[in-house]
Amino acid sequence: MSKILPAGTPAPDFTLHVTPDQTLSLQELRGRPVVLAFYPADWSPVCGDQMALYNEVLPEFHRFNAELLGISVDGVWCHAAFARDRNLHFPLLADFEPKGAVAKLYGAFRDGEGFSERALFVVDKNGTITWSYVSPVGVNPGADGILEALEKLPK
Amino acid sequence: MAKLKVPVGPADHAQGPADAPVTLVEYGDYECPHCGHAYPIVKALQKRFGKQLRFVFRNFPLRQMHPNAEAAAETAEFAATRDKFWEMHDLIYENQQDLSDELLSDLAKRLKLDAKGLARALESGDLAERVQKDFSGGVRSGVNGTPTFFINGHRHDADFELETLERAISDALL
Known about the structure:
The structure holds two protein chains of two kinds.
Chain A: E1 15-19, E2 22-25, E3 34-38, H1 50-62, E4 67-72, H2 76-86, E5 92-94, H3 101-105, E6 109-110, E7 115-116, E8 118-123, E9 129-135, H4 144-152
Chain B: E1 13-15, E2 22-28, H1 33-49, E3 53-59, H2 69-80, H3 85-94, H4 101-110, H5 115-124, H6 128-140, E4 148-151, E5 154-155, H7 162-173
Parallel strand pairs in B: 2-3
Antiparallel strand pairs in B: 1-3, 2-4, 4-5
Helix pairs in contact in B: 2-3, 4-5
């Protein structure tokens, strides 16, 4: 498994496409907590897939005023179709060109395979990583760790 | 490994003795086909382990994915207020492929429950809080999809086919 950026590290800034004509920078979200959820790919074939779970848990993230960003190497059109199909209510960022560059910045890229780990980061309102976790690629990490990390942030 | 954060208590729907050596908790969604697949498997486990097993069902409706899941969960909770939780739980899973508001109302009638009372309860959202409580507790415990099983408080991360669960429960009995 990759060595992901640990707690205490400043979260590297990035700008990625969120739709074909819109980009989002981590910097723009300064002032509120951000949850970065790197995942291998859209369209995983299971019902309880990770992004679908987070979509259901979104109101709990919002109680902490946190913004959730899903990130994979899939392109914007793929993300758009996936988000529509699964009725997702949070942004999916395309770490597509150069492929996996942001995942690499966070130490969450699987070299031989060309996609990212299931890696989670909680970034506080000042842009510092306060919690990070990497799950075996086959295991959906759930949302409990994220919520615990959000709870520990100073109010 | 993820652990059950909300201990099994009197508010839970449970089958089997409270002092059974193994407690199996399922977080399930009535519209989820994988939970439908698990339904007869749990029945077989209960038959196989008898009084050694207590089974608890908690709600985990994936509402964005399954439009009928919340109403189904609330219908089972409505039945629970009339001591018919398990009858309704079973009927919903046995008719899962036809899940709709009409079906839930028909099932209520079949169990001689007040269908109008059910409609009022669904409308008012009175049972939503109970369902949400199960859901939030599940999220905190690391439920990562449906169904998620916990065996004596530990999340079962392997598949939920009969042989696998049988082995996991046998191991917990040792």
